[in-house]
Amino acid sequence: MPIIVKRIIFYVCLILLWQGIVMLGIWPESMVPGPLAVVNEIYAGFADMTLVYDIVGSFKHLIIGLIISLIIGTLMGVLLATVKSADETLGSMILALQSVPSIVWVPLAIIWFGFTEASIIFVVIIGGTFVMAMNMRIGIKNVSPIFLKAARTMGSKGFDLFFKIIIPASIPHAVTGVRLAWAFSWRALMAAEMLSTGPGLGYTLSYASDFNNMALVIGIIIIIGVIGSVVDQLVFQRIENKVLKRWGMEN
Amino acid sequence: MSYLHIENVNKSFQRNTKRSEDTIQALQTINLSIHNGEFVSLLGTSGCGKSTLLSMIAGLSKPSSGSISLAGNEIKEPGPDKSVVFQEPALFPWMSVKENVTFPLRQKMNKKDQENIALHYLQMVQLSQFANQYPHELSGGMQQRVAIARALAMDANLLLMDEPFGALDEQTRTVMQDELEKIWMETQKTIVFVTHSIREAVKLSDRIMIMSARPGTIISDFKVDLKRPRQQKDLALLEEEIMAILKKEIDNVMKEELQYANHR
């Protein structure tokens, strides 16, 4: 059976189960809305464009933040991989920061930047930077010694060796870093937007919750999940697979 | 004055074990003179330090003591005056076959010349139609041939080869040996060739340096005076002679190993 068929059956069953639970009437619809109510809310949101503005707003924050975090993360990773003292000092801090959930930065961002888009972007940057840095570092550190030896026998050294061999050889790890940075940033973005003043999916989510619109809350959660997995599978996994294949690292 | 001159070279490695720090003597008092245009093999069992010696000639590592000089200049670092073919192809996977072969030429000439040279050597190893493929699309044997084309494209007078055909199947190996012999006769390069195959050494070399292990030393400087191109049938006699020398060596190593095992 093809995967797509399995998936369709799975989701149909899930929705039927959901509808069944709602029809049992244990909880009021204001707490557990049915699938139809959720679909209606999503439809209405797209019809009056509010959800479209939210998605556009969210992507704007994400893209700006992600790009900045990738640049900072790459530079940090290169620094950690090439300067031993930096690795021994800054490296330990980045490792610690990587384990701090992004939402922790939200109060700080609000105090520094107020309820502005800069706050959101700040949190997104923090979300993506460290994981990118760690992956870039591993990528550079794991360049196969045989590539370095071969390049040196062909007269490559210094900057040439670094930019022509070490950086390209670390691309597979860097791509994984980008993919993880996207995933981390996307989570951070939602956390930050929930405490912001829109537009953005996170903002609308917390707004809907304030007005007790559970159907919209669930609708937005679904949208966040769908966007997350679609971007991951259609964009990043494809790039990653291509790179791994080209670099001969496919299993 | 010989072209490649190796004088009293020792190489030892530190081995850190939990309790003590041992020094392993990998090579001991190596003296070797190689003339311009000579084809010399380093032959020995695994662990005799033949690859270590080659790596020092390449300038990738330094002797612990002694000196290695090329055309009168001490070898301090790797460089374009000596090209190396490793056991593994070591092609850069993000570059096409052609880009791999032109890599050592980048700073020396314009694009057009680079391409012509790359195609010339790719033709020599019969892979010109794969010029625009990427390494992962080629078999292991084809990749190794690209690596050989790349080393030849550098056009260094000294060609260092570290068991270059080790990973190839028997037929490809024989074809590549014939090919290398031909290339060597045409280009008059100096070749230092590491191998553990007696047949390969006899087939290709002017001189075979037979090495022993623990510590690695040269136990015999064996001249091969067969006319070229060499035929398989002429090789058998010399092979046996060398085998006899190596056999003693292998027995010694075995004995030593048994003694060590018994003393524990």
From TrEMBL, chain A:
Pfam families the record matches: BPD_transp_1
InterPro entries in the cross-refs: MetI-like, MetI-like_sf
Major subcellular location class: membrane
GO cellular component term, pick one: plasma membrane
Ranges for domain ABC transmembrane type-1: 55-235
PROSITE patterns: ABC_TM1
Alphabetical keyword list: Cell membrane, Membrane, Transmembrane, Transmembrane helix, Transport
Entry keyword annotation includes Cytoplasm: no
Transmembrane domains' residue ranges: 9-27, 62-83, 95-114, 120-140, 161-184, 214-236
Topological category with respect to the lipid bilayer: Multi-pass membrane protein
Listed name of the protein: NitT/TauT family transport system permease protein
UniProtKB/TrEMBL annotation, chain B:
Residue ranges occupied by any ABC transporter domain in the UniProt entry: 4-238
Residues in the signal sequence: none
UniProt keyword annotations, A-Z: ATP-binding, Nucleotide-binding, Translocase, Transport
Molecular function in Gene Ontology: ABC-type quaternary ammonium compound transporting activity; ATP binding; ATP hydrolysis activity
Keyword ATP-binding: yes
Domain of life: Bacteria
Keyword Transport: yes
Summary of subunit composition and partner proteins: The complex is composed of two ATP-binding proteins (OpuCA), two transmembrane proteins (OpuCB and OpuCD) and a solute-binding protein (OpuCC).
Protein name: Carnitine transport ATP-binding protein OpuCA
Provenance organism: Salinibacillus kushneri
Biological classification of the source: Bacteria, Bacillati, Bacillota, Bacilli, Bacillales
